[in-house]
Amino acid sequence: MKLVQSIALIGILLISFSCKKDNDDQAAIDDKIIKDYIAENSLDAEPTGTGLYVVINEEGSGFNPTPNASVTVFYKGYFTDGDVFDETGSEPISFRLDQVIQGWKEGIPYFKPGGSGILLIPSALGYGSEKVGDIPANSVLIFDIELIAAN
Predict the structure, then answer these.
(1) How many CB atoms lie within 10 A of CB 26?
(2) Which of 9, 42, 56, 145 is the most buried (most CB within 10 A)?
(3) Is 128 left (phi over 0), alpha (psi -120 to 50) or beta?
(4) Are 150 and 70 contacting, i.e. CB atoms less than 8 angstroms apart?
(5) 90-127, pLDDT tens digit by residue?
(6) Does the domain spanning 26-150 belong to CATH 3.30.70.100?
(7) For the chain, how big is the Rg over CA atoms in Å?
(8) What is the pTM of this model?
């Protein structure tokens, strides 16, 4: 019985290390894609330490939203090749930050109401290895953001 448990434990550890390596590999790929995009577009982007990069175009005023705030934004989401996968259009949208992808939870609090900029989101802070709608697995996501209000 102990032999079976030992073999099972070794198998679990091998799978865990394999997944960690895959995640590290994807993070390195995403970081290169993002850095290349920043260079090609002459962006003044700041890394946050989690793989997310933030560009502040307009400072805005007031308080930065908290990670669980309700916010109202205009946005356009696209890939590094410029293909748009989603946007608000002429009407802003409101939502709670605890209901969106991790890249938004981390990135939106960098903006103040009236502020605008860009979030460059690695796949791990987006949809990861899952295909969601028209967004392929392991996609770097870029969002133009204009924060209208935060509560």
Answers:
(1) 18
(2) 145
(3) left
(4) yes
(5) 999 999 999 999 999 999 999 999 999 999 999 999 99
(6) no
(7) 18
(8) 0.85
